[in-house]
Write a structure and sequence with these properties.
This protein is α/β, with parallel strands linked by helices. It folds into three domains: 89 residues, MurE/MurF, N-terminal domain (Udp-n-acetylmuramoylalanyl-d-glutamate--2,6- Diaminopimelate Ligase, Chain: A, domain 1); 208 residues, UDP N-Acetylglucosamine Acyltransferase, domain 1, CATH 2.160.10.10; 25 residues. 15% of the residues lie in helices and 28% in strands. It is flat and about 95 Å long.
Length: 344
């Protein structure tokens, strides 16, 4: 791949400082770059690498000093976003195969759209529908009466169980299970468990991405719903009847218990745990490893276990770090009080 500096600058709306005819052949991080690479600088902490990078072209903010004469600079307001646009346009790998592999098992009642790509050992069961331009990689299994939209990308070894609905432009990574049974049981007088039938389904709306090894449980009744634009990282557990709002982002190892509802444009850090049957309003950010046991009705930033507003949590944490000093001060005050009382 050979792309000129001018072509890149025109594409991302940047201003060139240097040879606009120079061509790049790869993209990389500043400290891993090679000659003819395009790189980027957007965090001040990485500015030191600008002095030593081997990249030939760097996307930078206008505020960054251009200290090296042997570098070509492209000024943009958001270098990280500009680089991702370049990667998407020029460096995204094409699907390495096309058509339907002979080893795929496709039930005669299934309906496949135009230009569908299906890999080795894929199973598509009765009455399934696969939309136009969708790609299903090797060894994935789609069970009965599931509908998959257009331009969906399903990586190897994904399982989608029966009666589920997948929207358009959805990406599902390897090892993920959509529609496993919700965790529903009731005990008898001996403490033995009887399984509660999980007769609902999962609905995944348009433009959702699920990372690898995500578990999305089907609803006990009704639907587990992941709404438009949500982004789910690896190893996330979404229990039965959970609802996740538009454009909400969940980092790795988040766990959400049953029937909890999460609003739009929320961001949860890694390993956040949420109790069941609570509600989180829109525009809530929750820091990593927090435990949420009650509903959050006010937008804002939260942290801790139990979760508190961020400023409160940090103040409490500061006090906890000073407990030893507080203990010494209290003991000294007690000693002085005892001395004063002895003189009365």
């Amino acid at each position: 791949m050979q792309i000129t500096v001018k072509e890149i600058a025109d594409f991302v709306g940047g201003k060139i400082f240097g040879d606009e005819t120079f061509t790049i052949s790869n993209v990389s991080r500043l400290f891993e770059s090679k000659e003819n690479d395009l790189s980027f600088l957007y965090l001040a902490s990485y500015e030191k690498h600008l002095l030593t990078t081997k990249a030939s072209v760097v996307l930078i903010k206008p505020s960054i000093k251009k200290t090296r004469d042997n570098l070509i600079y492209i000024e943009v307001d958001k270098p990280d976003i500009a680089l991702q646009k370049v990667v998407i346009k020029y460096f995204t790998s094409p699907i390495p195969f096309s058509g339907i592999d002979d080893s795929a098992s496709i039930d005669p009642t299934a309906t496949l759209g135009n230009n569908v790509t299906i890999g080795k050992n894929v199973v598509i069961s009765k009455n399934c529908t696969i939309g136009n331009d969708s790609v299903i990689y090797h060894n994935s299994v789609i069970l009965e009466k599931t509908t998959i939209g257009t331009n969906v990308l399903i990586y190897p070894n994904v399982t989608i169980t029966h009666n589920n609905i997948i929207g358009n432009n959805v990406i599902i990574h390897s090892g993920t299970v959509v529609g496993s049974d919700g965790f529903g049981y009731f005990p008898n007088e001996k403490g033995e468990y009887t399984k509660v039938p999980q007769i609902g389904n999962v609905i995944i709306e348009d433009n959702v991405e699920l990372g690898s090894n995500v578990s999305v449980d089907r609803a006990a009744m009704g639907s587990t719903i992941i709404k438009k634009g949500a982004k789910i990282d690896n190893l996330v557990q979404i229990a039965h009847n959970v609802e996740i709002g538009n454009n909400t982002s969940l980092s790795g190892q988040v766990g959400i218990a049953g029937s909890t509802k999460i609003g739009a444009n929320c961001i949860f850090g890694g390993q956040v745990g949420l109790a069941g049957h609570i509600e989180i309003t829109n525009n809530v950010m929750i820091g990593a490893q927090s435990g949420v046991s009650k509903s959050i009705t006010k937008s804002g930033k939260y942290f801790g276990t139990p979760t508190k507003e961020l400023r409160t949590a940090f103040k409490e944490e500061a006090h906890i770090r000073n407990l030893e000093n507080y203990s010494k001060q209290i003991k000294e005050l007690q000693r002085k009080i005892t001395e004063l009382e002895s003189k009365i």
